Amino acid sequence: MKHSILAAGVLVAVCALLNACTGKPDTAQVADSDVANAASDTGPATLPATESALAAPQQDAHGATGQPVSAEPVIEDAWIRVPPAGAPVAGGYMVLHNPGPQDDRLLAVRSPMAERVEIHEMRMDGEVMQMRELPNGLQVAAGHTVTLGPGSTHLMFMQPRAGLAVGNEVEAVLVFEGAGERSVRFQVRDERGNAVPRDAADGHDGEHAGH
Q1: What are the residues facing 145 on neighbouring strands?
Q2: Domain of 115?
Q3: Whether pLDDT at 1 is above 90
Q4: Entry pTM
Q5: How far is Cα 133 from Cα 156, in angstroms, rounded to an integer?
Q6: For residue 58, pLDDT beyond 80
Q7: Which of 96, 69, 192 is closest to 153 using CA atoms?
Q8: 211 in any annotated domain
Q9: Greater confidence, 141 or 8?
Q10: CA nearest 113: which of 184, 149, 162, 148?
Q11: Whether residues 124 and 29 fall in one domain
Q12: CATH number, position 166
């Protein structure tokens, strides 16, 4: 009996020595300890730098998602000079400002109060003032302002409808090459460019002081 117990003890010692020599720890214990150490050392899992950059929307100076920022044209002080009774034309004026980063062009204007609207330019040819239509429209450079006024670039409302009276407003649509269509209201003013109450303008036609 004693010999059996002694033999069993020797066998256990030999097995322990064999495990120490091979250096192979328990696989389950290694896996658990590695996971625990990785979690404590690196914290929450994160995407590599290249993957996280692709996952986020691309941004640049043009906008939050890389799309260019579009700036609407600014239209100010739009008005029409009231024509004398029976006059075939009426001059239209306004101030155009292009705040955008690219040039734009006013291609056309239309209004229910006229048969058609033309864009005209006036310039001196020697000692004679010449007026001509701009068939390709009017360019408005980026960041610049163009003033349409009497004696210079202006609109011509051809064959204006009856009913134009000082103090009224006329609807029109400006067609830009880049910005598209923009609605605007032109105020009807007297020959001096003054907007007076409609009742104060009764019986007052005035003379057409040029385009």
Answers
A1: 97
A2: 74-201
A3: no
A4: 0.60
A5: 9
A6: no
A7: 96
A8: no
A9: 141
A10: 162
A11: no
A12: 2.60.40.1890
Measure the CA–CA gap between 47 and 56, rounded to whole angstroms. 12
- Tokens for 26, please give them: 């328990």
Q: Which of 7-21, 90-104, 114-128 has the highest mean pLDDT?
A: 90-104
Mean pLDDT of 69-87: 88
Q: Is residue 63 part of a domain?
A: no
Residue indicated by tokens 């000692």: 127
Q: Which of 78, 72, 51 is nearest to 155 (CA)?
A: 78
Q: How many domains does the chain have?
A: 2
Q: Two tokens at 10?
A: 């020797």
Flag whether 52 is in a domain.
Answer: no
**Measured CA distances, 169 to 46, 94, 198, 203 (Å):** 62, 14, 11, 19
Q: Of 89-98, 106-115, 120-129, which gets the smallest average pLDDT?
A: 120-129
What is d(CA 200, CA 185) in angstroms, rounded to the nearest whole number?
A: 21
For residues 142 and 180, membership in a common domain is answered with yes
Q: Phi/psi of residue 35, each to 5°?
A: -60, -45
Read off the tokens for 52: 């996280």
3-state DSSP of the chain = CHHHHHHHHHHHHHHHHHHHHHCCCCHHHHHHHHHHHHHHHHCCCCCCHHHHHHHCCCCECCECCCCCCCCCCEEEEEEEECCCCCCCEEEEEEEEECCCCCCEEEEEEECCCEEEEEEEEEEEECCEEEEEECCCCEEECCCCEEEECCCCCEEEEEEECCCCCCCCEEEEEEEECCCEEEEEEEEEECCCCCCCCCHHHCCCCCCCCCC
